[in-house]
């Protein structure tokens, strides 16, 4: 270790070292050098680690957590539509396809106005950071210039993100559509523009809206662009029964097979929703290494259905959580965790011998599970040595909380109360790549 500024966070630390496994380090510590985690341990090894750091002449900043605080990995939002943020809370009397036509496309077409884009995108990035989202996988919009504005907002506020210019050659909104040639040309321009910013926290992602918005030839070309540039892919799958039926009628294939035929199923593909996937489709998705973004609030607000996350996991599919703003009304992954728990409990009422998810399961989905879903688990998701330090300090005893904290809680009880009762007020510090951004 070379001489440098070092942070040591000391206190109760909770993370998932592996899938669906949780670890508590009581009175533990994490050492951060620059952006990287260089050591993690418990009180028994702390003094030895401190002596080593002091002997190397490092400038050491020590952060001591209070008893009401825990250190956890940053949240990963695997599916969020930044342009839709102004519509959060609107249109939930409709179902998916009507909602898209009545609300979503009419709003997104307004992002030719770059002032609107900057105001909205600055707001949504700041809001998600305040709620603890250190990594977000964003759908931008059809317009290249506005999509770049979102990239610049992410860079400005220091979030980690995948950002995609939406591709859509079929639309009910006549002035919110592009030709295939425009789509491919502007996608390459967008990629080049993002790469030219040379920011290691922000990557472009290929973003066909969903199967009904493009034909197979077009999606296949987008698949080639992703492969040739080693990029991730995001889209939607099996969100709504009418949508699934229309995909089958148009292509004569299952939803997953449409994407497979288009070369869009890769180990860097994240598919939002996945409520109505067949066993065959799940086996295909698992074999390709693709993942599902579970968006429980959106699934219920738009009356799409209840996604059985345990079934996805049993098939070996990677799963993370998404807020799906504005299909979901909140940019908070904490709310998504609560909704995922509610969904799983509701499923247990109609499934024999079904054990619903518990708070530690959704904590995994919000952290390491999300990182795995976005193929970023080599960089973030837990406090493994060598990963970058994306983290939250959570305090359940803050001024003017949503829920007052009268009892002294154990660290795991603090986590449980945060999952069920927490909001942005309880997220007192946010770190991305070692930098404090809240």
TrEMBL record:
Transmembrane segments: none annotated. Pathway: Purine metabolism; guanine degradation; xanthine from guanine: step 1/1. One of its GO terms (biological process) is guanine catabolic process. It comes from the Eukaryota. It catalyses: guanine + H2O + H(+) = xanthine + NH4(+). The keyword Zinc applies. Binds 1 zinc ion per subunit. Its EC number is 3.5.4.3. One of its GO terms (molecular function) is guanine deaminase activity. One of its GO terms (cellular component) is cytosol. Keywords: Hydrolase, Metal-binding, Zinc. Residues 70-437 form the Amidohydrolase-related domain. It is an enzyme of class 3 (hydrolase). Its cofactor is Zn(2+). Pfam families: Amidohydro_1 (PF01979). SUPFAM superfamilies: Composite domain of metallo-dependent hydrolases (SSF51338), Metallo-dependent hydrolases (SSF51556). Belongs to the metallo-dependent hydrolases superfamily. ATZ/TRZ family. Catalyzes the hydrolytic deamination of guanine, producing xanthine and ammonia. This is Guanine deaminase. The lineage of its organism: Eukaryota, Metazoa, Ecdysozoa, Arthropoda, Hexapoda.
């Amino acid at each position: 270790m070379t001489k440098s500024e070092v942070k040591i966070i000391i206190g109760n630390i909770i993370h998932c070292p592996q899938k669906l496994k949780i670890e508590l380090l009581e009175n533990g510590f994490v050492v951060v050098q620059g952006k990287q985690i260089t050591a993690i341990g418990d009180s028994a090894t702390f003094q030895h680690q401190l002596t080593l750091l002091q002997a190397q002449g490092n400038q050491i900043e020590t952060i001591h957590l209070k008893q009401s605080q825990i250190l956890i990995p940053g949240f990963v939002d695997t599916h969020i539509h930044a342009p839709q943020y102004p519509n959060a809370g609107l249109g939930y009397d409709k179902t998916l396809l009507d909602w898209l036509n009545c609300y979503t496309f009419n709003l997104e077409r307004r992002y030719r106005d770059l002032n609107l884009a900057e105001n909205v995108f600055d707001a949504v990035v700041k809001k998600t950071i305040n709620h603890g989202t250190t990594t977000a996988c964003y759908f931008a919009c059809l317009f290249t210039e506005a999509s770049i504005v979102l990239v610049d907002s992410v860079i400005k506020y220091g979030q980690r993100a995948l950002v995609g210019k939406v591709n859509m050659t079929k639309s009910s909104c006549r002035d919110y559509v592009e030709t295939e040639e425009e789509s491919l040309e502007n996608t390459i321009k967008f990629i080049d523009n993002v790469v030219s910013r040379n920011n290691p926290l922000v990557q472009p992602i290929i973003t066909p809206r969903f199967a009904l918005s493009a034909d197979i030839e077009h999606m296949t070309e987008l698949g080639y662009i992703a492969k040739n540039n080693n990029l991730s892919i995001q889209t939607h799958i099996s969100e709504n029964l009418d949508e699934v039926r229309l995909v089958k009628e148009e292509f004569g294939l299952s939803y997953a097979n449409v994407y497979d035929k288009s070369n869009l199923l890769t180990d860097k593909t994240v598919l939002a929703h996945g409520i109505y996937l067949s066993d065959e489709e799940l086996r295909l998705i698992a074999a390709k290494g693709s993942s599902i973004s579970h968006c429980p609030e959106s699934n219920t607000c738009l009356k799409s259905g209840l996604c059985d996350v345990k079934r996805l996991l049993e098939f070996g599919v990677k799963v993370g959580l998404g807020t799906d703003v504005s299909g979901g009304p909140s940019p908070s992954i904490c709310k998504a965790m609560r909704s995922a728990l509610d969904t799983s409990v509701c499923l247990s009422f109609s499934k024999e011998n079904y054990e619903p998810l518990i708070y530690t399961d959704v904590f995994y989905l919000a952290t390491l599970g999300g990182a795995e879903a976005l193929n970023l688990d080599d960089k973030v998701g837990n406090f493994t040595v060598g990963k970058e330090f994306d983290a939250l300090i959570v305090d359940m005893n803050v001024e003017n909380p949503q829920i007052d904290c009268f009892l002294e809680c154990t660290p795991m009880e603090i986590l449980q109360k945060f999952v069920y009762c927490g909001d942005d007020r309880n997220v007192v510090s946010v770190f991305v790549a070692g930098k404090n951004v809240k």
